[in-house]
Fold this sequence. Notes:
Blueprint: H1 2-15, E1 23-28, E2 33-38, E3 48-52, E4 60-64, E5 70-71, E6 74-79, E7 84-89, E8 98-106, E9 110-122, E10 128-130, E11 134-138, E12 142-149, E13 155-159, E14 164-166, E15 169-172, E16 175-183, E17 189-196, E18 204-210, E19 213-222, H2 226-234, E20 254-255, H3 258-316, H4 363-370
Helix pairs in contact: 2-3
Amino acid sequence: MAPHLARLILLLFLIFPRLSAVRHVSVQTGGSITFPCHYDQYYINHMKYWCQGLGWDVCSYVVRTDHPKSSGKTSISDDINKRIFTVTMTDLTSWDYGNYRCVVEINGGTDIMIQWFYLSVTPGTPELYVEQQEVTGVEGGSVTVCCYYSNSGDMKWCRMGGDCVSGNSGTLNGTSVTLTRTSDANIKTVLTVTMSGLKMENTDWYWCRVGEREMPVHITVSQQTATQRTSKMTSTTQDPTPPQPSASPTAEPVQTDNTSQGAEGNMEEVHQRSVKVLHISLGMLVVVTAGILVTWKMWRRPKDNKAKDQTTNNSVDPFPEADDDVTYSTVIPQHKTQLKGQTKSADPDDNVVYSSLALQVTTQQRAAAQQ
């Protein structure tokens, strides 16, 4: 009996620390929900299943990690590295409400309940919901989760199986967490959760909790790509703009990393810088061109003046030595022969004959003038 008693005590020691209080989850009709179930490392190779029922003896399984892994609108998957199996229920109706349990099978039949959920399906807006159950971010960046609620109670952001942050701010595993309460235009109260300075180990399931209502949210942190690192280095610091929520409470994946969102604004700034550099380059080109033109004109000015002086001298005296070669003819007055029978004229000009004056220019002077 002693060995059996020892095994029973060990089993109870393993079971009860893993038991959690019932989690109340509310979903709108037609929506979907994913439930995370965390188990101990001792149960990595054990079969897990999802069952519906309230009592220990009344629990009919719906899906199992061995077979079947899906049944109708419900499916199950097991991540043995993170020791979490998840159950997803889609297209929910009022018939799907009730108690559900995450169960691990040991010793070929003994079941261990590791989590208990109560699911309510409402045609109206749920008391607590999030737009997206799956949120992604990059290392060093931040993510924002908006939790819409209409009930009252303490507000917390908790890591599954870990600590919680309440009030206005705190830390989870070295990551900064801030909680902000606001009301939107539709008079809905919103609890905005922002996790900054993300690390790879922040990838996990979290719970948004208001009073007795809870909603699971999975955050995935990935490494920055080369493009994201370059954009971050070239960008200026900008205030992150939280995503604008819609009124749909259904769960769909969404990218909410604020660091990568700044990339488009960064590209615009890079474009503006390129245009500015182009303008400066064009201005410098104009200045250099003007300097070259001024230098060329200054260099050409002495030659132009010299050519102008030569032209002026040539135009003043085309035959500078012509005086030496001028030949003057002698003017000799000649008397006209008086015809017989005529009376001698009294005008002395009638008896004078003038010769023409001719300038003789040498061949050498003509050649110099033509040059």
